[in-house]
Design a protein that fits this description.
Elements lengths: L1 H22 L4 E6 L6 E7 L4 E8 L2 E13 L4 E6 L7 E4 L1 E4 L2 E6 L2 E7 L4 H4 L12 E6 L7 E6 L5 E7 L4 E9 L2 E8 L2 E10 L2 E10 L3 E11 L5 E7 L8 E8 L2 E9 L2 E14 L4 H5 L1 H9 L20 E12 L3 E13 L5 E6 L2 E7 L8 H4 L5 E4 L4 E2 L5 E6 L5 E6 L1
Antiparallel strand pairs: 1-2, 1-9, 2-3, 3-4, 4-5, 5-6, 7-8, 8-9, 10-11, 10-25, 11-12, 12-13, 13-14, 14-15, 15-16, 16-17, 17-18, 18-19, 19-20, 20-21, 21-22, 22-23, 23-24, 24-25, 26-27, 26-28, 28-29
């Protein structure tokens, strides 16, 4: 009798593992933990074209980003990683699929665990979702604006947003970020008034945002409430304000294939529908959709004061949009514009690492620069066409590699750069 129960349990286990394997998809962002699950060990991004990136961490400090190619034999659960520059010595791992959003690999006594972005596995295993920004923008420039609007970004030792400096011909702002387990507080002073943005966090997601203004008293300017579905996708945004009637609305979102496909916003001043098409050949990168894509369009439509778009890429809003925005179709009416029906197409220029350098849509041009620690060529070097890059072993490369790089410029000069 006992043996029958044991055999039944084994059968159920095998069936459940087969079911998980069938639902398992390696493509996506995964957070790697060591057996103690106390701190993040690495962030793995597996792309659909069998390439990816690995950012390793030690005591919360990023040790840089490696590019790799990979093969995944789903039937035998064998994952093979070819780190760039080390293709002759691949890592071959026989992984164990625990669930569609969790897998492990054992080597001797060491057990590594991978948790997929947006899942709840992190809490169940004693860890939590990482809020480190994977690919880090150092600078955003609104090239088509008249006032030279520029954002400069800084990150803390956990890879989270920590300080923004925003400049234009009209003003300069310093925006600070503070983190607690249940709240993010963002603060800056503008025109003599202190603006405090409080984002309330529950289960690793922002569920409410309050924007307070202090100027001879404290005033709650507007609020945003966020609702998620069972797949951890943001599906509703309700905005309210006693000071800006425009910012009173309800927006409902529909997802398709990992992206926000449709948004409808209804309020006393508006009735608008948005439809989004995506460039499935390119994944969204850090702040690009937040400043220059579907996420930006969604929050712009309400005209509420908010920092929430920037936190999409920091895993505070459940699922992120998977791809770069290709087209936005917008129709409806509001009290500012009357009736409208328009389509806005997006085009991109990429740097040598495939990151967005420029985004053009409508009459706007947005420019991005990326941190060198994210494996990105610094803008000054990226623009030296004709440069030849060599590593110490004598091999030539199109982009900077980790370690010592010897760069022979067009004018014959040679410089050396060490990249972590």
């Amino acid at each position: 009798m006992i043996m029958k129960k044991i055999l039944s349990l084994i059968t159920l286990l095998l069936l459940s593992m087969a079911m998980f394997a069938e639902d398992f998809n390696i493509v996506g962002t995964w957070y790697q933990y060591e057996s103690d699950v106390e701190s993040l060990d690495g962030i793995w991004v597996f792309k659909a074209d069998n390439t990816g990136t690995l950012e390793e961490f030690h005591k919360g400090q990023s040790e840089g980003v490696d590019n790799f190619k990979y093969d995944f034999d789903a039937s035998n659960c064998i994952l093979t990683i070819y780190i760039k520059g080390e293709e002759d010595d691949p890592s071959v791992m026989k992984i164990t699929i625990v669930s569609p959003t969790k897998f492990t690999y054992s080597e001797g006594r060491d057990v590594l665990t991978w948790i997929k972005d947006g899942s709840s596995e992190g809490e169940n295993s004693g860890g939590s979702v990482s809020h480190a920004v994977n690919d880090r923008v150092s600078k955003f420039f609104y090239a088509s604006s008249n006032d030279g609007l520029t954002y400069n970004f800084n990150y803390d030792d956990q890879g989270r947003f920590s300080l923004f400096t925003v400049t234009s011909t009209k003003e300069s702002l310093t925006i600070t970020w503070e983190y607690a387990s249940d709240m993010i507080t963002i603060k800056y002073t503008q025109n003599g008034a202190i603006v405090t943005d409080k984002l309330f966090v529950s289960n690793d997601k922002v569920v409410k945002e309050e924007v307070w203004i202090t100027n001879g008293g404290d005033f709650l300017f507007n609020t945003l409430d966020f609702t998620y579905d069972e797949k951890d996708q943001l599906v509703k945004i309700v905005t309210k304000s006693d000071f800006e009637s425009w910012a009173n609305s309800e927006m409902n979102l529909i997802w398709e294939d990992g992206n926000i496909k449709e948004a409808s916003v209804v309020g006393s001043k508006m009735n608008t529908s948005l439809t989004f098409d995506y460039d499935t050949a390119h994944e969204d990168q850090s702040l690009v959709n937040a400043f220059s894509g579907s996420v930006a369009m969604i929050f712009n439509e309400t005209e509420a004061v908010t920092f929430s778009p920037m936190l999409f890429c920091a895993n505070y809003f459940g699922k992120q949009c998977k791809n770069l925005t290709k087209r936005v179709s917008r129709n409806g009416s509001n009290t500012h514009e009357g009736t409208f029906n328009e389509a806005i197409d997006y085009s991109y220029e990429f740097d040598g690492n495939g990151h967005v350098k420029k985004c053009n849509f409508g009459n706007k041009e947005h420019q991005y620069e990326w941190e060198a620690s994210s494996g990105i060529v610094t803008p000054a070097l990226a623009n030296h066409l004709g440069n030849t890059i060599f590593t110490f072993d004598g091999r030539s490369h199109d982009i900077l590699q980790r370690g010592l790089n010897i760069i022979r410029q067009e004018d014959g000069k040679v410089i050396k750069i060490f990249k972590k």
